[in-house]
């Protein structure tokens, strides 16, 4: 189970890249870095991926790192840990795409592509990650408040506190 890091709710989103081609890695780092993302290389050892909000891989890296990526998905659960698979159009079959999409990879982007499409896909996956983190955080708040109550009246009060908190009110009830 993961905690919700404060940096993810705010800014400082981190993207890790595991792409074999050095020029592709550099292009990704430049393009995404220009948009304000922290872009780092992915190393399968140690803490790699644990601080990432998105992982971008190519097919050879996906095959090589599949076990580590599965581990990252498990560690992040129930929070979404998105993986964007970059693949060359002529090298990828629809069978491979259907096998990876929704299991190991949250999205697949065929390259070459435009900077605008890369940006949109990355933005969508990071938004998915943030929504997942926010939902997990709010679930934990609700769980914390409701588990403390042992009576129906206490539970009703807790629910009212939760509703007012989520609507942005700080009113104390009862």
Automatic annotation (TrEMBL):
InterPro entries: CheY-like_superfamily. The keyword DNA-binding applies. Keywords: DNA-binding. SUPFAM superfamilies: CheY-like. One of its GO terms (molecular function) is DNA binding. This is DNA-binding response OmpR family regulator. It comes from Halomonas stenophila.
